[in-house]
Amino acid sequence: MFLFIWGIIFFFKKSLRREMLIISFFTMPFGLTEPLFVPEYWHPQSLFDLAQKTGFDIESLIFAFAIGGIASVFYNLIFNAKFKPLSEKEKKQKRHRWHWLILLSPPLIFLLLSLLTKLNPIYDGIIAFLSGSIAAIYCRSDLTKKIFVGGLLFFLLYFIFFSSLIMMFPDFVKTTWNLTILSGVLILGIPIEELLFAFSFGMLWSSLYEHYYWLSEK
Question: Do the beta carbons of residue 147 and residue 136 sit within 8 Å?
Answer without folding.
Answer: yes
